[in-house]
Design brief:
It is a single chain. It is built from 6 helices and 5 strands. The chain is α+β, with helices and mostly antiparallel strands and about 180 residues long. The strands form 2 sheets. It has a 3-stranded antiparallel beta sheet with strand order 3-5-4, covered by helices on one side. Strands 1-2 form a two-stranded parallel ribbon. A hairpin with a 4-residue loop joins β4 and β5. The longest helix has 15 residues. The chain is globular.
């Protein structure tokens, strides 16, 4: 097993921090149990030995403020645009007794609609869709994906490709967590 350490690109973190008039790292400990970066790091470790990461946990929930954040991020990212590899790592729906529902139900219709917005980089529609249905299937990453898609649009990306969509059913708790793999090239 490769026990190599994936480092944070601290120079870019500092450049990004300089763009803001508030401390963008102040909520760091509120995310201490966040685990969505762990799985993608396995893949990153196989790319090149000198890759470093910038991780973003997004708590901002206002579309206009998220767009302002992206403008500042793009100022830094565009300096070395070709050196970046972007991953948004989130689950989709969380339904069933484990998550507070009386019984499990199939989240696929909601997931597919949300995925379609993601594929077409329609982050505003995706955001509004989850707001309107009060995120009834508890899709993770509404804010993260808004930010992610806004960055991709700023870099000229036009569309994504759905590679896979799956649902994991946990019989013991009569619950489902769904997830997908989408590539933007």
């Amino acid at each position: 097993v490769d026990d190599r350490i994936i480092e944070t690109e601290i120079n870019f973190v500092n450049k990004i921090k300089e763009k803001f008039d508030y401390d963008i790292t102040k909520d760091y400990f509120s995310f201490k149990r966040e685990h969505s970066i762990e799985f993608p790091l396995i893949f990153i470790s196989f790319l090149e030995e000198d890759k470093k990461v910038l991780t973003f946990l997004v708590s901002e929930n206002n579309k206009e403020k998220l767009k302002e954040i992206v403008k500042k991020l793009l100022e830094v990212i565009k300096e070395k645009e070709d050196d970046f590899f972007f991953i948004s790592s989130i689950d989709l729906s969380h339904v069933g007794r484990k998550f507070g529902d009386e019984k499990c139900f199939d989240p696929e219709e909601v997931d597919r609609k949300y995925i379609d917005y993601l594929l077409n980089l329609e982050n505003e529609k995706a955001f509004d869709f989850l707001e309107k249905n009060e995120n009834m299937t508890r899709i993770d990453g509404k804010n993260t994906n808004f930010l992610f898609l806004e960055i991709l649009k700023g870099l000229g990306i036009k569309r994504g490709t759905l590679i896979n969509y799956k649902k994991y059913y946990e019989e013991l708790t009569d619950s489902i967590v769904s997830y997908s793999f989408i590539v933007f090239d």
